[in-house]
Amino acid sequence: MTRHTAEQTVGATRGTTPVAPAVAGRRRRPKGRRLRSAYRLPALLMLGPAVIALLAVGIYPAFFAVNMSLHSVQLTKPYLGTPFVGLANYATVLGDPLFWGALGRTAIFFLITVPIELVAGIALALLLDGTRWQRLAGVVRILVVLPLAVTPTVVGLVGRLLFNRDFGVVNWMLGLVGLGPVSWLGEPIPAMVSIALTDVWQWTPFFALVALGGLTMVPTEVTEAVRLETNSRWQMLRHAQLPYLLPGIAAVLIIRTIDVVKLFDMVFTLTRGGPGVSTELISLYVQRIGFRVFDMGVASAQAVILLVLSILIAQLYVRFVYREVEA
Amino acid sequence: MTLADAAQRTTRPKRRGPARPAGRPRRMGSAVLELVVLLAVAAVLLAPVVWMIMTSFKTTNDTFAVPPKLFFTPTLEHYQAIIQDGTVPRALLNSVIVAVASTLLAIVLGVPAAYALARFDFRGKRDLWFWFISNRFLLPIAVALPFYLLGRNLALLDTHLVLVLVYLTFNVPLVIWLCVDQFRAITRDIEEAAYVDGLGVYGTFRRIALPLAAPGIAVAAILCFIFSWNEFLFALVLTRDAAKTAPVEAANFMTGFGIRWGPMMATGTLIVLPIIVFAGVLSKRLVKGLTMGAGK
Q1: Predicted TM-score (pTM) of this structure
Q2: Which of B116, B205, B283 sits opposite A142 (nearest CB)?
């Protein structure tokens, strides 16, 4: 077989891939066993390196962290050794108001940013999909990708410039309408608003693009049918478009949940968790305990608690979102 | 091209008719409003990046000007300063080395694994696949703490290698996710024909499947590069000097006496520039990488 025909066949059959494997599998059942043993060694050789690599860099460190969390590991006091302390570190973490405070701030941050991103993202997607300025919308579609790709560390640094009290653009614009100046990064609540606004800038496009993907899946017949019934945009959204939006949006919500727990770089460069600890989200707090206080035992216990939390969310995500893929 | 793209391409012409169907009149007002909102959105999306680039070309006096200066005489002094100083170019070089090496390694490890997952049937395949993918959701800070201690014991701290390895935790799952999809899109018949023709399992993989999946592998590689290039937490805690990457170097401008805005924004611009190029190239696929396919 030549490559030329190979490519043609691929092009022709791509549209039917969801069906093809099942049919092929049923047809090949009789000789399946012979194929399987022939493929055993190659499968092992192809999967082995990736499995070993991820075990080494992902799973082993995680177990190492569990082990560390059961010991007292004070890097600044090596003469203490690393005695086994059982669950004492966990008791410390769970009894530590600062840990709960950081977790609480993370929850607040999530509750401020994600609903705004969700609503703004869907609204933007509807606008881009339905506007009569399609050429301009095409340009905006490309621009929307920008915030997602820009290095979060740099986003935080630029935020510092924009939110600067004395010469920042934000205060200048507030001044034009007679407000301010606000000490954005110098006071607790404005600082939280700054990181939230920055996050909204960076992640609203994520919701918008996923929603746009859903909107393009809505069959024309459905929208036409609804249009015959009503002129209301709301009805159109509820009955025709929402069913196609929900799966993607659900997935993004779960991803954002994990992302907020992970969030470190942008906040680190924008506020460093300050002033005080007012914007110290959970990952920043754990990093500070581990790498500025160097109490690795307690930091590990914190990390393990978060790890369990994120594994639960990830499992939810993987089972929930990818069920159809694997079926 | 992926299935989703194809679907979009075929449906769009139908949906984007010449105009709205009759019986749905729109007032001038709403059209103008839409225009204003679209322009405002475009401005907001662009503004921070444009402002960063502009500031990198401003003299220090212009940076501090109130009201902010939109028009100014550009200067290259900040770029000259950071190039002469040498730390930023070195950090950028480190970033290139780490991102390229980790991307290549992730491709070498991930692509064959993806092929095996897409093609061979074996018990526990589904669980193995789930496990690969869930590595993407490991908490970086939970991996960073033990990596720091392990790296210290093995004298790997502040080396390119430690970052290359730790970046595999997010790059390998990404490659596997995207490439399994890509290999599945190739029909089995072609490969079976090749196999029967005597190419063997490896020959079929190398000569038939790899070339056909090449576009998808390229997308995966670019995404790996972007994620590695942007990474900050691991680089911050696992490097100190010799292997320090560009984002860490950029963050360093915050410490010390007074922030040197010009050099900082120039560094930021140099970091973001290649990303903007790649993001432009990928556009739609970037979302696929971020959602691991959930948005398709």
Answers
A1: 0.84
A2: B283
